[in-house]
Write a structure and sequence with these properties.
about 250 residues; alpha/beta; globular; single chain
Length: about 250
């Protein structure tokens, strides 16, 4: 049962001040030493969070699974093929937004997306897509030939507790069930925190939990080991089937 921690917020703080600290590599090492089983990094076209050298150092030296998130541009796909992360997740290119706020809507598949999936598959790199958390998107992703999906749970995590959140949780559960039926690895991401992770973690078909901002923000007050331990404790409330794995 595993947990991935996204360290993009660390790179964002470093780059905002044009400094060498805080160091994403050191934070990734501390996260793994504190109980994270893998690290996620999003390499943007303008390198606003992570730099090429960051990703290369993590893949070469960390000794833990790395998920590299990129847009489906030929330049970034070529870089992924060269660096060979454990998994490459293709995500929407949202221009100037600091962090991702949606998954792919595959009602119309962008030509570059299909080309990127094919290129990564031929290179022997495991491919996933960040998609909106519904059955239609998971089905469309499977038809593209990916090995997994990351369900974007942002609408769920932003919803108020009650009927709206319950309805969105039902959508996530249906999407996870479809992913399992299609033989896809299913990870959930998108603003998950200690008060929202338990229901996701107990969802059948969910293989992974991926968190970033909530853990990094909490670590600023309490330290990263305590933040990760608190998140794992929240996940464990889901019971024996609850703690999800991220690969």
């Amino acid at each position: 049962m595993r947990l991935h921690v996204n360290i993009d917020p660390v790179g964002l703080v470093r780059n905002a001040w044009a400094q060498q600290t805080p160091c994403p590599i050191e934070m990734a090492r501390l996260a793994v030493a504190s109980g994270a089983d893998g690290i996620g990094v999003h390499l943007r076209k303008d390198r606003r969070h992570m730099r090429d050298a960051d990703v290369e150092a993590l893949i070469d030296k960390l000794g833990a699974p790395i998920t590299m998130k990129i847009a489906a541009s030929s330049q970034l796909v070529d870089l992924a093929v060269r660096l060979r992360p454990d998994m490459c997740c293709l995500v929407p290119d949202q221009g100037s937004e600091i962090f991702i706020k949606c998954g792919f809507d595959l009602g119309v598949v962008p030509p570059l997306l299909g080309m990127a999936v094919n290129r990564l598959n031929k290179a022997g790199i495991r491919v996933s897509l960040l998609v909106e958390a519904n059955v239609q998107q998971v089905t469309a992703a499977a038809l593209l030939g990916v090995g997994g999906v990351i369900l974007y749970a942002g609408r769920y995590t932003r919803a108020n507790p009650g009927r709206e959140r319950d309805a969105l949780l039902a959508e996530i559960r249906s999407a996870a069930g479809t992913a399992k039926a299609r033989g896809l690895t299913c990870i959930v991401s998108g603003g998950l925190a200690c008060d929202t992770v338990a229901d996701i973690a107990r969802t059948p078909g969910v293989d992974g939990i991926s968190v970033g901002h909530s853990v990094i923000a909490s670590s600023m007050a309490d330290g990263l080991p305590a933040a990760i331990n608190r998140f794992r404790s929240a996940m464990s409330m889901a019971g024996s089937n609850g703690i999800a794995s991220a690969v």
